[in-house]
Amino acid sequence: MRTLNRIGQFSIRMIFKQILASEADNQPNSPLPMKKLSKLHRQIFSITTILALVTIVIISVCIASLLYTQGIDNAESVLRNKNRSVTALIEGYVAPLRKAVEYTSSPASGADHSHYREQETQEKILKLFEVLQNTIPNIHYIFSGYEDGSLLINNYTPPSDFNAVIRPWYQAAIKSHPLISDGVPYQDINSKKWLVSFGKTLLNAEKKIIGVISIDAGMDAIVRALAVKDEKYPTIYNFVMDTEGKILIHPDETLPDTLHQEIISHIPKEMNTSGSLSYNNGEHNKLAHFNRIDELGWIVVTEVNLSDIRQPIVKTIASTLLVIVLGSLFTTWFMSYVLSRYLILPLKRLQQRVQEITEGKDELDKYEFPNNEIGKISEAIEKLTEKALIKKNIELKDKNTLLSTISHTDQLTSIANRRKMMEVLHTEVSNYQLGHRPFSVLMFDIDHFKRVNDTFGHEVGDQVLRRLAQVVKATIRDTDTLGRWGGEEFVIVCPNTDQNMALSIAEKVFSAIHSNNFPMQINVTVSLGLSEFTNNHSLESILVEIDRKMYRAKQLGRNQIQT
Ligand SMILES: Nc1nc2c(ncn2[C@@H]2O[C@H](COP(=O)(O)OP(=O)(O)OP(=O)(O)O)[C@@H](O)[C@H]2O)c(=O)[nH]1
């Protein structure tokens, strides 16, 4: 049983492992590791497992009780059949003996026992005994005893003090008068063989008892019948007892005369009854079947240890339950697999893909949803989410671009504003520090711009600022950045540009401004300072330096470049 239990537990553990492992294996198109069970799967799995366990328990209890009842019924039927066959054999064995007793005791036999003292009668009786003994081979002795203590028997001379009247067979027959006595077992003094004796009273014409006729037969055949074993139930055991519960015949060598009161109390008193009973003989719980043969005063009992019956039943129950448990676990695993494959996996996949879409993953891995309602709904939801999100992403990107442009652009001139120019300057300083890439910074301010505003108005002033920005932007290289530093002040950042190249750019700017037609024919000039960034500079110091140079240009009469 223990081994069976261990095998059962091991198998159950293995199947549970398989069930959990199958979750990860069920992802044929899965690019993502799915080590954990999904919440939905866990819920479904626990519900199906609980249902399976409850079903297993209910089915197991039903099957176990059914198998147990059936096992006990089978054992009872085996006991009944065995008991019946032993009873029939005993009855068949003793029937001719009893018939012989009846015959020899009746006047119809031709032997008139009332004249047993006469020589002729004795000869007749002895002849009759001889014939019967030859006819029925089971007869060991056939003899008659008479009220005067004498004995009539072939081939035996009783001792001189022999008194038939006090012999047990004589007493038994007297006790049973007018019927044949019960079968009385006894051990023969000479052969030591166990014999059974049947006797009947002999009557004279006045119906007065004058003696007893007795037939003794060997019990070997009965003992052999009782000794028959059963392969299925090794402890099966037959015996014969009298109505007091005393064992008369059983298959052992000796005949114990122990009392079996515990059985007798269960056996009904009605004549010739049979049935089942269970009892404890002090050592074992027993199941038994009995058959009363009241004409013999015998009860034939066939008993077996209950443990003998229970053992095969328990084995059958255990193996049946193991099959049921394994079957149920396999069904649970299969249901889990099917649910996972066609219901939970697509939903989990949908959840991941929607998450990926919302997290902004550009390209989703290829995944084919199953061809069922869940698959179709999942596909539709995925597409819907994708569309909505792509639209939102585009809108957001546009807005971000716009925001970035606005935050880096000067509103009036549409060139870079001061914040943008600071970023450009920081980048150039970093590049310079990384690879000594030269760069130069130019700063210029419109001369007497206040007068423009004062003379032509602020609107014209704005137009001049816009035009100037256009002109300068068109003049410098694409790699150079022009920005409005503030008011009428502008900055140009020129990467890969040393002092000389910066001067030439400044001159080009000057020339472009001079040759340009500004609104209202205004003559626009600028004062410009420039510097190449060197190891001695920081961003702050170069800005201060070019500002000073620009100021000096103003001081020295404006419309000039200071390097
Ligand atoms: N129309 C217009 N005028 C501006 C703008 N920003 C600054 N200004 C004007 O630019 C003028 C600058 O004057 P100042 O700082 O005195 O310098 P300036 O008149 O150019 O003289 P110098 O720089 O010494 O040659 C002020 O009148 C400002 O109002 C702008 O965005 N639009």
TrEMBL record:
It is a multi-pass membrane protein. It catalyses: 2 GTP = 3',3'-c-di-GMP + 2 diphosphate. Keywords: Cell membrane, Membrane, Transmembrane, Transmembrane helix. Its main location: membrane. It comes from the Bacteria. GO terms for cellular component: plasma membrane. It is found in: Cell membrane. Residues 437-563 form the GGDEF domain. PROSITE patterns: GGDEF. The chain crosses the membrane at residues 44-68, 317-339. SUPFAM superfamilies: Nucleotide cyclase, Sensory domain-like. This is diguanylate cyclase. It comes from Marinomonas fungiae. The lineage of its organism: Bacteria, Pseudomonadati, Pseudomonadota, Gammaproteobacteria, Oceanospirillales.
